[in-house]
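Re: weekly structure request thread

Next one in the queue (295 aa):
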Amino acid sequence: SKATELDPGFARAWSSLAAAHITLPAYADEPARENYDLAVEYAQKALAMDPSIAEAHAVIADVLRIDRSWSEAYKHYRTALELEPTNSTGHLWFAEHLLSVGHATRALEHLEIALDLDPYNPGVHAVMHNAYTQLRDFDNAINYAESAGELGQPAAVFWLAMAEVDAGLFEAAKSRLRAYPDTSDPAHPVYRYVAARESGNLEEYVVLLETGNPPPQFRIEMLATVGRVSDAIEFAKTMPMRGNSWNAMWEIGIPELYAHPGFAEILESAGIISHWDEIGWPERCSRDGGQITCR
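Done, posted below.
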């Protein structure tokens, strides 16, 4: 902000300030909506002075993605990459957009470019973990969660534990959770969730659903696991499901959830199907006449 005060006509300073506001809520206890609105305001100021600043287009795209304005977000991401194809952050944020709409394979292509351009960025490693989780490649998901932690991503211990759970490495996951301040208590819902998955005890899932107040993604997964897929769908319909939530939704590995007709309804209401009609459909979903199926 000091640079914009010293030179209010310095477009790149406004763009950098916009980028700071879009990322701030992820790293500090700051109000998301207020920061996103400021990010858009400052990015638009930058573009009014210099429409060729890729970073400003990427910031606007990221807020549009969060707000599920998929098509407009996609256009701004593409503009950003056309203006600056060697910008690692542009490829990273576009990959997050693609992951939000189920395009994990395409996302991985951009993440590999981002990794080549900026190999020590913990955010790139973290999103690589997300992409491989969507693709059910748990070896790579574990590797990138681990490297994200080594590079300083504070939440990576939790992500690594969840990747180990998906890979069936329950003891390793529980050990990590015991060392993670937020989940060190074995009575914590996430720790109990891991224990329930390890035991395969569906009754424990039901108890946890009723008493443990698990995080939304886990609640959806647990409802589907105990055969209550319709309840999982109905719960998902009550969630705000902003852009960031969709990345987690695609990581749930239960085919019955994606095959349920209600899942297609959620996709439709979120505007994802119309976006696929514009950019192409992901490998995991298809439409045959009026029937939409995902896996």
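The first strand starts at residue 285 and ends at 288. Residues 9 and 49 are 7 Å apart (CA to CA).
Next request, please.
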